[in-house]
Design goal:
The chain is an alpha/beta fold. Helix 2 crosses helix 4 (144-152). The protein has two domains: 4-191, Spore Coat Polysaccharide Biosynthesis Protein SpsA, Chain A; 246-485, Spore Coat Polysaccharide Biosynthesis Protein SpsA, Chain A. It is built from 15 helices and 18 strands. The protein is elongated and about 80 Å long.
Length: 487
Amino acid sequence: MKRINCFIPFQDAAQVKTTIANLKKEEEVAKIYLLKAEGASDEKIDGCEIIETPSLKSTDCIKKIAAKSDAEFSLIYTKYTELSFGLFAVERFLAIADDSKAAMLYADHFNEAGGVRSELPVIDYQFGSLRDDFDFGSVLLYKADALKEAAARMDVDYQFAALYDLRLKVSQKGKLEHINEYLYYEIENDNRKSGEKLFDYVDPKNRGVQIEMEKACTQHLKDINGFLEPNFKHIEFSDNSFEYEASVVIPCKNRVKTIGDAIASALSQKTSFKYNVIVVDDNSTDGSVDVIKKFVGDPKLVYIAQDKTYHAIGGNWNVALHHPKCGKFAIQLDSDDVYFDENTVQKFVDAFYAQNCAMVVGTYRITNFKMETIPPGIIDHKEWTPDNGRNNALRINGLGAPRGFYVPMLRTINFPTTKYGEDYAVGLRVSREYQIGRIYDVVYNCRRWDENSDANADVPKMNMNNLYKDRIRTWELEARVAMNQKK
């Protein structure tokens, strides 16, 4: 008996011709269904059945797929481009499915873009892999029983979040198994640099999508007992042992082109209180130290030269936080960015007192190196709502910028000694207990340029970064579930 029903997006006959021909060659393929959304061609394709749906990412579509899933497995292809499998790759999918008893399987694959073929490995799914943009590749092989059971529990009519809702619900009852073998070939039609894709989830034009994704994730957290009610610890800002009310913290590693701008921006702040600027240089070798030393005559500047041990961004933050000159509030400024104007530090300190929070997240503007606004423009992270921000933080891949912290609290947590994700780890940990304050005015210019650390990361680097952030989410989610169990 043939074991797989296939469901592929349909626009017109030319678009699906090669994919259908490739699927018909596979002995285990029983039926091929074409997912036809609004605006697609009315052509009939021999040997295929049409499923009409308002949107391929809608609950309507998933439920119709479930209704047609009468084979043992359901293969959902998520791209409109051509799909082909390696020799015996489909059989390999099924063999691993039989051995692992997984509810859903996905695999490494080859990517073809601009006539160039490259390897596209993906990462393992884990408890905290809640990002709605988790990269499974374009071939999802579901155990039909698991798909149908999850679809039966889908009681919200989503237009954008249904595929996300499906895999969250499937993950509650079974494994999502990564086959780290290259089993198929897909065509890539998004050729942007990795750094240009980073902000898709906060692009204002995608706000409707984000609202649905948040709703699906929030329900999942409730289902697995990881949801936190909006009850927060009260903060008392009564510690008067600090010489300075605030410190701007600038970690630096080989930023000779930009560190001077950052320091000048920090030193030019106008405040009603005493503040300083702590620059932590982590053994720069490109002349950054020479630039920093041009500012040491300013009484507000504290220069820290790190020793030769490993520090990374997190370690540089920690040495600033525990320095005797650190202020009561520590406010971020990356070494390649600048504040929007001279009022940023004042606005942060005001926000701490007004909102009684342990951490404040600002709003930033994406610019090029010439300080010209570039898409997507202003990033305000509206997902940081007072009632659900700390839950939604487990879904998104960043917490916004700049960030400010109440130092006595942060000294009890500290940053992980890493060069990526350290701010996300701290933000999640803080939000477990404390309210996160918000500033919706633009207070920061985030400059994107070719030497940014994430401007054009390769696939292994992106996978390493995403795997680490998923680990951070897993640890945090496990802690939240344990905390709820004690209540």
